[in-house]
Amino acid sequence: MIKIGSAFLDTGVILAPMAGCTDLSLRLIARENGARFAFFEMIDSNSIIYGNSKKTLSILKSVEKDNPIAAQILGEDPAGMLKSARRILEISRPVFVDINAACPVKKAVRKKAGAYLVKHPEKLYEMIRLLASSLPVPVTVKLRSGYAERNPEETAAIAKNCESNGASAIFIHGRTRDQGYAGEVDYGSIRAAKDSVKIPVIGSGNIFTPEKAKQMMDDTACDGVLVARGGLGNPWLARDIEEFLLHGRRRLPVPPGERIDTLKRHLAYIDRYRDGGASGRVGFMRKTALWYIKHFTRSARLREKISLVKSYEKMIELLDDLKTNNEVFCEQGY
């Protein structure tokens, strides 16, 4: 169990707030298969205050079984971040709100948000103080292990200052802003942050297998892990990590037929819940299907077939044909 301010999490394996990925359909299929805590997709503070309210409501769409959940906000202005957080709390029921100081994309950094705040942390501390003193839920922070270069001592100092300004937990992606999502994960910086604070620290970066999750926790002493890209097309990952951490054993790979059946349920959730019209839903279905089939044999051929699908019904028909004709199987280990 992890205590984040007044909130108690009964798991240390958390589904990350990936924009354009962790929508309601993905969260539901992950929860069905063992995930016990998730974030909404990352939300831009300006989009809530000034943007398309319909799109914001779509991001925050949820159902009763999509709980417990947290929200993460990206922004550069403390007052705007507070206003957007209050708006989120009017619409939904997150158990805590996270400030994104980790997004490495140029668009975020140019507007002095995301990982920019690691380079200029005084603005970050101001945000934490304002939100933590004004919101009825705990406030957490997502950091990077550096901006251009890794610096464990500096990361530890930032984490400590986040704590002293009111943060109830720290999430750390173990790469610098300049690394983006490539290259080696720096366990040393995560460990340095963990050693410097009393609040929970959750590690992030390359959590693609239960073994990687255990290595992260063993080498950093972090309190939990954040599952991001590793969970795309693998809704069983959180369950498998918990099983491995508790019992030291790897569950048997999910058979291809079960993978296809799970993908079909995922697509049904997209068809039922996703906004944006039929064309938008089908485009997201194609993207989702590609996540699931990346470890299938003949994946290039399958990608071509999926890219040509024009409707939900045709996608289901394609998947049924694959399963019936035994055209696919997974690489060893999947």
Biggest sheet statistics: 9 strands, parallel
CATH T-level topology of the largest domain: TIM Barrel
Tally of alpha and pi helices: 15
Report how far apart the termini are: 29 Å
Rg calc: 20 Å
Residue runs with pLDDT of under 50 for 5 or more positions: none
CATH superfamily of the largest domain: Aldolase class I
Regarding quaternary structure, what we see is single chain
Class from helix and strand fractions: alpha/beta
Q: Helical amount among residues, as a percent range?
A: 40-55%
Principal-axes shape call: globular
How do you describe this structure in short?
The chain is an alpha/beta fold and 334 residues long. The chain has helices at residues 24-32, 45-49, 53-59, 78-91, 106-110, 116-119, 121-134, 152-164, 187-196, 210-220, 237-247, 256-273, 277-293, 299-307, 312-324; strands spanning 2-4, 7-9, 13-15, 38-39, 43-44, 69-74, 97-100, 139-144, 170-173, 201-204, 224-227. It contains 15 helices and eleven strands.
Structure notes:
The structure is a single chain. The chain has 334 residues and is an alpha/beta fold. The protein folds into 2 domains: 2-247, Alpha-Beta Barrel (TIM Barrel), CATH 3.20.20.70; 256-324, Bacteriocin As-48, Chain A, CATH 1.20.225. Helix content is 48%, strand content 12%. The protein is built from 15 helices and 11 strands. The strands form 2 sheets. Strands 3, 4, 5, 6, 7, 8, 9, 10 and 11 form a 9-stranded parallel sheet that branches. A two-stranded antiparallel ribbon has the order 1-2. Helix 13 runs antiparallel to helix 14. The longest helix is centred in the last third of the chain and has 18 residues, at 256-273. The two termini are 29 Å apart.
